[in-house]
């Protein structure tokens, strides 16, 4: 079996487990992520990122990247969205959409960094949580957290 066929079979298997997002939800998340990119503070890299996080309660939390001259205190859009939701008492999530590009031009998918994937692992079921990477409402791909972090370490690893 070719790798692409194997990936298709894997996605088909996962679709039995995952809650399917409706097309309208996907497009709404993409629009919100693009809107959030406009709030991005990226004076050093000029790489602007927006995120829209869908909580299980139906609320959407936006986030943008926020850079800092010291670099280390910078924060990614995905973590901004998660921390905003968690700070309001929300701990369960279905999906996140991420968009980003140099000078706000959406030409390639902007995948979450390792730190953001680890934050997702803290709050999300890796086999069900969906990550939408988009360049427009028509051009996107959906991955599970497990696909992007196959051997992730999370809360279940610390249970006795």
Give your account of this protein's structure:
- The protein is α+β, with helices and mostly antiparallel strands and 160 residues long.
- The chain has helices at 3-17, 23-37, 77-87, 114-123, 145-148; strands at 47-55, 60-64, 93-102, 130-134, 140-144.
- It is built from five helices and five strands.
- It has a five-stranded mixed β-sheet.
Query: Taking strands numbered 1, 2, ... along the chain, how are they ordered across the largest sheet?
Result: 2-1-3-4-5
Shape: globular
- Helix run count: 5
Mean pLDDT: 91
Q: Report the major sheet.
A: 5 strands, mixed
Instruction: Please report the total strand number as a whole number.
Output: 5
Helix content: 25-40%
SSE run: HHEEHEHEEH
The low-confidence runs, each spanning 5 or more residues with pLDDT under 50, are: 1-17
**Separation, N- and C-terminal Cα atoms:** 39 Å
* Rg, alpha carbons: 15 Å
Query: Helices and strands: which structural class?
Result: alpha+beta
């Amino acid at each position: 079996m070719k790798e692409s066929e194997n990936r298709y079979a894997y996605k088909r298997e996962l679709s039995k487990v995952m809650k399917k997002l409706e097309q309208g939800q996907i497009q709404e998340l993409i629009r919100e992520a693009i809107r959030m990119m406009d709030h991005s503070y990226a004076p050093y890299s000029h790489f602007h990122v927006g995120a829209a996080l869908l909580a299980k309660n139906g609320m959407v939390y936006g986030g943008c990247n926020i850079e800092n001259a010291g670099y280390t205190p910078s924060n990614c859009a995905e973590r901004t969205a998660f921390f905003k939701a968690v700070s309001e008492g929300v701990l369960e999530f279905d999906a996140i959409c991420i968009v980003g590009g140099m000078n706000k031009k959406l030409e390639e998918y902007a995948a979450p960094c390792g730190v953001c994937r680890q934050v997702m692992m803290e709050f999300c079921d890796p086999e069900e949580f969906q990550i939408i990477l988009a360049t427009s409402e028509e051009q996107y791909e959906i991955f599970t957290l497990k696909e992007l972090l196959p051997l992730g370490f999370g809360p279940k690893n610390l249970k006795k």
